[in-house]
Amino acid sequence: MDTVWILGDQLRRDTGALAGCRPGEVRVLMVESDSKVGSGRWHRQRLHFVLASMRRFAEELKAEGFAVDYRRASSMRAGVIAHREEFKPERLRAMSPMSFDGLELLRALDVEVIDNDQFLCSAQEFAAWAGDRSNLKMEDFYRWQRQRLNILMDGKKPVGGTWNYDAENREPPPKDGRSWPAPIIDSLDATDARVIADIARRAPEAFGSSFDGLWATTRTGALARLHQFVDEVLPLFGPHEDAVMSTEWKLAHSALSPYLNIGLLHAREVVDAAHAAFNDGRIPIASAEGFIRQVIGWREYVWGLYWLWMPEYRELNVLEAESPLPAAFTGGETDMACISHTVKAIDERAWVHHIERLMVLGNLSLTSGVRPGALVDWMWKSFIDGAEWVMLPNVIGMALYADGGRMSTKPYASGGAYINKMSDHCGNCRYDPKKRIGEHACPFTTLYWDFLARNEPELRSNHRLGNQLGSMRKLKDLDAVRERAVEVRARLIDGSL
C-alpha cells in the first residue's frame, strides 16, 4: 500500500497528495518532531495550535476509515525512516512543503513530491509572471490576480472603477466608543489538556499564555470564524484597518491567517465568501477590496517571492544590521507604551495585526539595527500564523529593508508621529513623539533621524527618500540626536528604556 505523508501545515482533506484518495487505498503518515517542538522559545499557543490541529485531523481521517500512522519521533527524518521500516510502502508521496528546507528534506528522503495547491497562484505561476520584470511591484501582481481570477471585476475594468481603495482605509482609531464583535471562544477538551501537558514536558523554553480556545483547531471551528468575520466584522474592516487601539486587540481584522497557513481554510473559499457578501450588497467596496487584496495580493505575493528568491534571500543584510533583539521583545520591561502593549498582546494571544508588526515591532527593529535573522526567528516562533515563508519576505524585505529594495521601494521607517496618529498609545506614554533629544524624547523619533543619517550612503539613491534625507541634513541638533540614539540603542538591548 502507498503512503501519503501529511505535514503539519497541510491539514486539508481535498488538497495535495491526499486529494481523491479513499480509505483502504493509502495509509496516512503524520509525524510530530521532538527536535522541532523543543527547538527554542516557541509561543505555547503556537505549538498548541499546530499539535492540536494535527491530532484532530488525524482523528478525522481515522473516523473516515483511513489507516493513520501518527507517530512522535526525534525528527521528521527519523519518523519517515521508521515508518518505511515498519510498513514498507510501495510509494511514499507528499504535497510540496511550505518551506525550502522542508522540500530539500523530502527530496533527500526520496519522497514523491506533489505540487502544492494551497494557494491561488503557484510558485511556478508566480515565477512565470515575474519573468524578466525589473520591478516586481505587489500592486501589479495584485491587478494581474484580480483579472485572471475574475474577482471584483466588471469585464476588464475593476468594479467601481478603482483598483485600490487603500487611501480610504487609513483612518486613525475611532473615538466614538463603538463596540467590536467579540471573537468566538471554544471550550477546551481532553485533546487540549493532553497537548498542554505535552508542551510543558517537551518545550521547556516555551513562553506566553496557555491556549484558551481563542484559536480554532478544526476545520469546523475555522469555518465558523470565517462566517462570523464575513457576516459581522468585514463590513467594518476598511476604514480603520491601519489603526491601533490599546482597548481592542483585533478591531475588524479577520485573524484568519493561521487557518489559511495550515490548511484548515483555503484562500479560494475565503475570497469567495467575501466576494459573495459584496455582491449581495452586505459589504462596502473599500472593505471588500481591502480584505481581498490582503489575501490574493499580499499573501500570495509573499509566497511567490519566497520561492523565487530562496535560499539566498534569507542571508541578505544590506544595511549590515547586527544588533540583538530589544530586551522588551523577550520578556524585558519598557516604558514605551506601544512596545509594551504590543509585546503583552503577543504574550496573551500570539497575534497582533499587520501595522503593529510592521510599524511598531518592525520599525523599532529597523531603526535600531536589529539583525534580520534574529527578528525572523523571533516572529516565526512568536506568532500563531508564523511560518518561514511568511516571515522571511515580510521581515527581510518589508520591515528591515535588508534586501536593499528588491521587495519594497523604501524602508518603512518612521518617527513617533506616525504611531501618535494611528494609535492611542502616546497620550499615556512617558516619551514625547515630538521630541528628538532628552530623556523624554520618543525612541522612535530619535532613532528615525539617526537611521537616516547612519544609512545615508545606502539610502541616498532612493528617490522616495529625497525629502526625508534633505530634512535630516537640515537638523541643527543632528549631532545631539545621534548621540542620544547611541544611548537609546544600548538601553533597548539591556532593557532599561
Automatic annotation (TrEMBL):
<dbReference type="InterPro" id="IPR052551">
    <property type="entry name" value="UV-DNA_repair_photolyase"/>
</dbReference>
<dbReference type="InterPro" id="IPR036134">
    <property type="entry name" value="Crypto/Photolyase_FAD-like_sf"/>
</dbReference>
<dbReference type="InterPro" id="IPR014729">
    <property type="entry name" value="Rossmann-like_a/b/a_fold"/>
</dbReference>
<dbReference type="InterPro" id="IPR007357">
    <property type="entry name" value="PhrB-like"/>
</dbReference>
<protein>
    <submittedName>
        <fullName>Unannotated protein</fullName>
    </submittedName>
</protein>
<dbReference type="Pfam" id="PF04244">
    <property type="entry name" value="DPRP"/>
</dbReference>
